[in-house]
């Protein structure tokens, strides 16, 4: 009986620890630095940083907007060449609801007001998709796209843009031999993912970095045309245990 009692106490303690940690851990900001080897990258781009952040899911219970504010402040202070947002800006919202979108815009306004180019793709939650066979809310995404573009955030829907370095940082502009191409693939669950269209017009030997919400879209990039990419959707894992890395 003593063994069973002790085992029960240990299990209860572990459960309490996991629950408590699950409530605390989302308020920590962990910055992961990943080196990227991009073929034909111009010398001027060597050592430049691209900041990747996303899956805010504003509107979800305990959506933790305070941490989003802090992350935005840290990115601005770090001053990367560009900021890539991986989508799922809002959670599953009621049709036509502006509340969550307005909150996202307020959170991202400091980034939009900075001199850092900001670009994004759309995720399944932006289309109000909790399952990949739901009907996508395209009207909401069209409205979100327009609102983002109005404040200077570039929305990439199976398209690409060009980044050029200047003395004051990177800017979106016309392609030349020193440019870096950023491609953004549409939402996989919404049936909008088209890697071929995204890459269309990028010279085969030009350096590029691909952005997508669902990492499954990476499989549709043929022939290794983009060996480097960033995605969201998986949230970096659902469970993060202290001192145990890569645990999901």
TrEMBL record:
UniProt xrefs under InterPro entries: Calcineurin-like_PHP (IPR004843), Metallo-depent_PP-like (IPR029052), Metallophosphoesterase_sf (IPR051158)
Every Calcineurin-like phosphoesterase domain range: 51-153
Which Pfam family, any one of them, does this sequence belong to?
A: Metallophos
Protein name per the record = Metallophosphoesterase
């Amino acid at each position: 009986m003593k063994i069973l009692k002790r085992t029960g106490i240990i299990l209860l303690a572990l459960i309490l620890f996991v629950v408590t940690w699950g409530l605390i851990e989302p308020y920590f900001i962990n910055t992961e630095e990943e080196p990227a080897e991009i073929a034909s990258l111009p010398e001027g781009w060597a050592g430049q940083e691209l900041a990747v952040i996303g899956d805010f899911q504003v509107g979800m219970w305990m959506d933790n907007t305070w941490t989003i504010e802090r992350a935005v402040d840290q990115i601005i202070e770090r001053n990367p060449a560009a900021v890539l947002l991986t989508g799922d800006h809002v959670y599953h919202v009621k049709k036509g609801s502006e509340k969550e979108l307005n909150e996202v815009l307020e959170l991202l306004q400091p980034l939009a007001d900075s001199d850092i180019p900001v670009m994004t793709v759309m995720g399944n939650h932006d289309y109000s998709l909790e399952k990949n066979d739901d009907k996508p809310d395209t009207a909401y995404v069209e409205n979100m796209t327009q609102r983002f573009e109005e404040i200077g955030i570039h929305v990439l829907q199976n398209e690409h843009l060009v980044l050029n370095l200047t003395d004051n940082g990177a800017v979106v502009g016309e392609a030349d031999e020193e440019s870096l191409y950023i491609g953004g693939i549409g939402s996989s669950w919404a049936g909008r993912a088209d890697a071929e269209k995204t890459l269309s017009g990028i010279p085969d030997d030009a350096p590029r970095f691909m952005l997508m919400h669902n990492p499954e879209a990476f499989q549709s990039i043929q022939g290794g045309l983009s060996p480097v990419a960033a995605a969201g959707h998986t949230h970096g894992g659902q469970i993060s245990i202290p001192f145990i890395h890569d645990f999901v």
